[in-house]
Write a structure and sequence with these properties.
By secondary structure, this protein is α/β, with parallel strands linked by helices. It has helices spanning 17-20, 34-45, 93-106, 150-161, 219-233, 237-246, 257-288, 297-308, 315-355; strands at residues 7-10, 27-32, 55-64, 70-80, 82-85, 88-91, 111-118, 133-134, 174-179, 188-199, 202-215.
Amino acid sequence: MDLSTPALLLNPSTSTKSTSSLYSSSVSSIEVHPLVLLSVLDHHTRRQEGAGRVIGTLLGRRNTNSDGKLNVEVTNCFAVPHAEHGDEVAIGKDFNRQMLALHNRANRNEVVVGWYATALPPGSEGKDGGSSNSNEEETEGEYKCIADTSSLIHEFYAGECGGPSSGGGDGDPIHLVLDTSLKYDTIAIKAYRSTPIAIKGEPFANMFHEIRVRIKSAESERICVDKMIKGLSGGGKQVDHAEALLHHEDVLGNKEPGKEDAMGLQMSMEKLLQLLESASTYVDQIVDGTVKIPTDDRVGRKLYDAISSVPRIRNEIFDGMFHDSLQDLLMVSYLSNLTKTQLVIAEKLNETLTLA
């Protein structure tokens, strides 16, 4: 392994005991929200022509587990302009500080936890930070997760994590890398932490150690991701039926907005019915003693809590409430369409008067 380069890569499978002891008090795992991944991919798609990779700032929270290990939850991010030429890196520091100030206005709980980058394409060594050496053999034409300039960028974010923007953090940033090569029809996600290497008290290089990454979705994010997956896969006959309804237009040539909402409600109700049937089948098997899996008291408590959270309402009262809400919704939809019609008529009249 050539130690002349400023960035080194260490894999967990080949780390020695003496090296692993350095990370006992560092970050043990990372949880990344889907919003972060989509933002990074959008940044990569909109990159400038000829750019090797893109970088940005990661925002989130640092939490300590019950076993005393540090866990980082990445909830948001934003792009940062930069330029790499050989061993030199230029980062938009002022832009980074302005974006941090804007994000702090919206959410003060999010602090700087590290930075992201996309993998370095092959052939970009001369203009985008050089190649990276690791203890794994790298084949020619392979995208590289760690570049020589990664150490310089990591040092910059070490100062950001230890500054006021991080809420007085420990100055230990994480590095998130997305491999956009799609070599195996997938997007690889890797995370690293860096440890400086010193010889006789003098800083010599940085050692990047890969750590475990897990995708964590909030309820709203999970719903959006499920919707995106169904849209990509086609969703079968239900989606075709929904598209047929969405293409139904009114007299003004506008698509009826209620059709899309109705189909979304129908799909949600069908999914809810499937979940209820699955839970009912599970409970019946537990009662009959025919279930083949071990029983779990926690599942029973969660089912009890779910049932208890549903208010007991007589059928006739529920029907009345539902129809009243439906009438209100139809009235709002009618008024909205009436307003659109008036605006279109007014626009046509103005065009006629202008031409006259």
